[in-house]
Amino acid sequence: MRSLMQLFFLLVILVGVRPPSLAAEPPRELNLKEALRLAAKANPTLKISRLEELIADQEVVRARAGFLPQVKATLSHTLYDDPTKIRIVEQVSPFQGPGVRLTNRNFWASQVAAEQTVFDFFATSSRYQAAVLGKNISRLDTQKVRDNLFLAVCQGYFRVLRAEKMLLVAGQEVTQLKEHLKNARDLYEFGLTTFNDVLQAEVALADAEQRQITAKSDLTTAVSSLNKILVLPLDRPLKLAEESELAVPVTEFPQAADTALRQRPDLKAAERRIQQGEKAVTQAKAGFFPRFYVQAGQTWQQNDVWVHDSQWFAIFGMQWSLFSGFDTRAQVRQARERLEQLRLQRQDLSDQVKLEVQTAYLDVRDTAERLRVTQKAVAQGEENLRLNQERYKEQVGTATDVIDAQTLLTKTRVNFYNARYDHQMAKAHLLWAVGAINELLEEKKP
Known about the structure:
Elements: H1 2-16, E1 29-30, H2 32-42, H3 44-64, E2 70-79, E3 85-86, E4 100-101, E5 106-119, H4 123-189, H5 195-230, E6 239-240, H6 253-263, H7 265-285, E7 291-301, E8 310-319, H8 327-393, H9 399-433
Parallel strand pairs: 1-6
Antiparallel strand pairs: 2-5, 3-4, 5-7, 7-8
């Protein structure tokens, strides 16, 4: 019995104590390039767009089928109540015979034929060229989805870093106010200050602690949002590296706008859609003209009275819809109106791209200036707080001066980190606007 109890306690210890290897590992540090690689590999929106490319590939295969012969085979079994017959009328006498049987009453028949379009006034070739353009459009649309995804990753990445710094600032404020509260209590106990200083410090500390709680919640939300983009568990902790290699080309707005007009995949896709619309007009106009074709094959029919059951045949034919109730004319008009619509959309998109480049360009310039100004303000705010703390300890300054200095320092720190990460996001936005954000994931060539 004693040995059983010892064995039981040994099992409890083994189950209750986790081996060090199974302990929760700290999150691995993730840089921006690795985050972009994770998103490019697993994001469902990008996967859906890539599937659209495969669908467009098959549309090209379908359109190419118009250039190849169509081979069809039929097999049938026919039952008549009376075999097919003809009457033979003699020229000399009006006597009509009883009729000559031409088919069996019950017979099988089959036909195998190959048909090839010879010329259809460019309907087939236009459809094929439109399908090839559609494949190219799908590829460009995927690039656009990828660029939008990379911009979202960059924004989420820097939002997490900013939320971490805001939590750090809130923690620093709480620590410094706790120190001030301790000084106020010490001075009150020695009778050097009134209890109002203690109350004032406690109120300021409680307010700072509330901001710290909010900062923790904001950080959790930012991490969850980035995890969703990266297709990671929402509650997975992230440890992000500071990004210092995010750089934009030093250029003026006109050059940046020209670069965007050349590189943006959505503009390239708009150009391809216009070309595709032109092919649709040609394809619709082909409905006014005939289609020439050749057909060849073999027929077989089970028949007791025919000399040959099977026959080979060849046909050179023409199909022409002479009147379709104005349907063809309406199709041509629709195609032309869609083409005009695409041209207007292309012009509007071009203006929108220029506006996006201008906005991003100004944001980069403005946030860089904000960063320069706030960086100096932080050092000045820290020195201002130190001086007011020393003045308060020496009973030269007041508690209000210390709290005001602390509030001012917190504000300058918040402004500095906002400027830093707004500048990073503005640079990412400018890279996206000129169509170069995908270069963040490309390996640098030696």
